[in-house]
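Researcher: We plan to redesign the surface later, but first we want a full-length starting point. Tokens attached.
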């Protein structure tokens, strides 16, 4: 990892009373946390079972979710994190060490590093955006892979299918669904594998200047039923929705 290319990201939720931020190192090869990460973390902090003894940050990127869980949310729990990117795992280990928290960081695709393991909590922040949109967005520079398919469902559908076998009997999972993906298909899979699927919160955002020039592409994907954007006045809006799923 090139020290000269390291950046930083600060997580702080004033709505939850944070007066100091948690700063994580970032690098160009690793997905940079977004408003989805903040919304996901805020939801977990508000809703997680305080008796949670083990947690997995799946698709950890720089490790900010795992670090926040270890420092602010579940300081007594065993925190684990994994990512398919070796650079991401290296960065997550670095951030865990800088915050003096213990996180078991492993490299591998989805649940591969956790064969036979079960968790009380899984927080998923794996790529879930229509690939044609992702490649034209500021969120996915050339160095950062997505490969989620035209509907953005490749990874999240597999995660939802396999997550129940990695949850304890009282376990729960939090995951984001973007309307810049095939949300109906994702939700069909979620309801197939979980007895209880609850929409906890959602946030709508205007399309940024990176995507507005590609509105014709987005409208084409809408015509195929693969994404949803809404027009409000002169603005086009998309949303992140955070769900909680369990089998109890």
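Model: Full-length starting sequence:
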């Amino acid at each position: 990892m090139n020290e000269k290319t390291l950046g930083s990201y600060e997580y702080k939720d004033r709505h939850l009373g944070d007066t100091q931020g948690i700063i994580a190192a970032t690098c160009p090869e690793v997905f940079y946390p977004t408003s989805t990460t903040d919304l996901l973390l805020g939801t977990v902090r508000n809703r997680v079972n305080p008796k949670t003894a083990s947690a997995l940050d799946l698709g950890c990127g720089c490790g900010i979710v795992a670090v926040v869980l270890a420092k602010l949310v579940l300081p007594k729990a065993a925190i684990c994190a994994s990512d398919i990117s070796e650079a991401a795992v290296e960065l997550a280990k670095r951030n865990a060490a800088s915050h003096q928290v213990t996180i078991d960081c492993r490299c591998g695709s989805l649940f591969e590093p956790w064969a036979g393991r079960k968790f009380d909590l899984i927080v998923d922040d794996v790529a879930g955006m229509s690939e044609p949109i992702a490649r034209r967005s500021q969120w996915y520079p050339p160095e950062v892979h997505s490969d989620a398919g035209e509907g953005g469902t490749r990874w999240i559908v597999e995660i939802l299918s396999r997550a129940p076998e990695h949850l304890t009997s009282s376990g729960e999972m939090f995951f984001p669904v973007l309307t810049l993906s095939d949300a109906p298909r994702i939700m069909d899979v979620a309801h197939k594998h979980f007895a209880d699927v609850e929409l906890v919160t959602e946030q709508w955002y205007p399309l940024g200047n990176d995507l507005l020039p590609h509105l014709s592409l987005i409208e084409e994907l809408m015509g195929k039923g693969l994404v949803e954007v809404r027009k409000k006045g002169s603005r086009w809006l998309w949303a992140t929705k955070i769900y909680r799923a369990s089998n109890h």
